């Protein structure tokens, strides 16, 4: 298990919660070995003191002073995090990649690593309430976690772009459970013909398995941003969106994918636990995570 406690890619009011979330995931889920990637420990200069575990981001009419001329918050720190993650993966070998974060930006190096290894045989399954297909120009927040997938496909800040041979293909990409899409992202999805499987279609895994099979891939990298879940069922979310998946349906989808295709890697991101005192049942989310990933986690 690669534990990447990166928060710098988040555009939410409480990104520091992702650090605790990464370490908590690393402790909750089984693994034969664990590697913690060293990430800048400097705290957010503008932390959110609100104990609400699920803050709702709101548009800010004033420019964020942390947003660089590139349009990306904390880009220098993200580049250092990427280098550190790539260094850790250099010694990974042929084992299946298993990454926990942190914001969605932790997926850059693992997915690029899988794409380089499996080439046209790899499909990326993106379980996420958001497609993360913005560019620095179209992003409303400057948070890189909303640009990760677009960058992996070759359109993002130069400092974070994977080499062409390390990029997955949009033709072998499936968005699953996505329901909050910005206009520029929608235009890109339509232009590239990217496959989508809705929350309703995920009542059974059949449509998802069929969509992946249609790509011709034999291997899958599965990305899970936990905000794909319904916030009524799971509380420790960085950017909650209503109308998400029931945990049992996510577990069934993961099981079906790993039965039908070889697993190249799994990434779990955006776990943002709040203070225990603010939660009605602080153990519920932990139990839910164990149940969802019981069939696919190594160890």
From TrEMBL:
Chain segments annotated as transmembrane: none
What SUPFAM superfamilies does its record include? Arginase/deacetylase
List the keywords (alphabetical): Hydrolase, Manganese, Metal-binding
A single Gene Ontology MF term assigned here is: arginase activity
Under PROSITE patterns, the record lists: ARGINASE_2
Cellular component, GO, one term: cytosol
Pro residues compositional bias: what residue ranges?
Answer: 44-62
UniProt keyword Manganese, yes or no: yes
Q: Where is the signal peptide?
A: none
Q: For the region Disordered, give the residue spans.
A: 37-69
Instruction: Check the record and name the CDD domains matching this protein.
Output: Arginase-like_1
Q: Which domain of life is it from?
A: Bacteria
Question: Is the keyword Manganese assigned to this protein?
Answer: yes
**Membership in a protein family:** Belongs to the arginase family.
Protein name, please? Arginase
Q: Which organism is it from?
A: Embleya hyalina
């Amino acid at each position: 298990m690669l534990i990447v406690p990166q928060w710098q890619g988040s555009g939410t009011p409480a990104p520091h919660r992702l650090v605790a979330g990464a370490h908590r995931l690393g402790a909750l889920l089984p693994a034969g070995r664990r590697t913690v990637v060293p990430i800048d420990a400097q705290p957010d200069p503008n932390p959110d003191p609100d104990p609400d575990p699920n803050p709702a981001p709101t548009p800010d009419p004033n420019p964020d002073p942390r947003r660089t001329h590139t349009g990306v918050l904390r880009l220098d720190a993200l580049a250092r995090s990427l280098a550190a993650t790539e260094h850790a993966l250099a010694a990974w070998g042929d084992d299946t990649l298993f990454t926990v974060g942190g914001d969605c930006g932790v997926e850059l190096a693992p997915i690029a690593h899988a794409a380089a290894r499996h080439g046209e045989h790899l499909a990326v399954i993106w379980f996420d309430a958001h497609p993360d297909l913005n560019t620095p120009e179209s992003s409303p927040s400057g948070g890189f976690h909303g640009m990760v997938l677009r960058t992996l496909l070759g359109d993002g800040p130069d400092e974070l772009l994977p080499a062409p041979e390390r990029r997955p293909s949009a033709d072998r990409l499936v968005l699953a459970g996505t329901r909050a899409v910005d206009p520029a992202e929608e235009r890109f999805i339509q232009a590239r013909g990217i496959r989508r499987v809705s929350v309703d279609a995920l009542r059974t895994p059949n449509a998802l398995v069929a969509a992946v099979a249609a790509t011709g891939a034999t291997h899958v990298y599965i990305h899970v941003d936990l905000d794909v879940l319904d916030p009524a069922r799971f509380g420790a979310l960085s950017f909650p969106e209503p109308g998400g998946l029931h945990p049992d349906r996510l577990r069934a989808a993961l099981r079906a994918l790993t039965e039908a295709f070889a697993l190249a890697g799994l990434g779990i991101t955006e776990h943002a636990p709040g203070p225990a005192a603010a939660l009605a049942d602080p153990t519920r989310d932990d139990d839910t995570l164990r149940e969802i990933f019981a069939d696919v986690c190594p160890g």
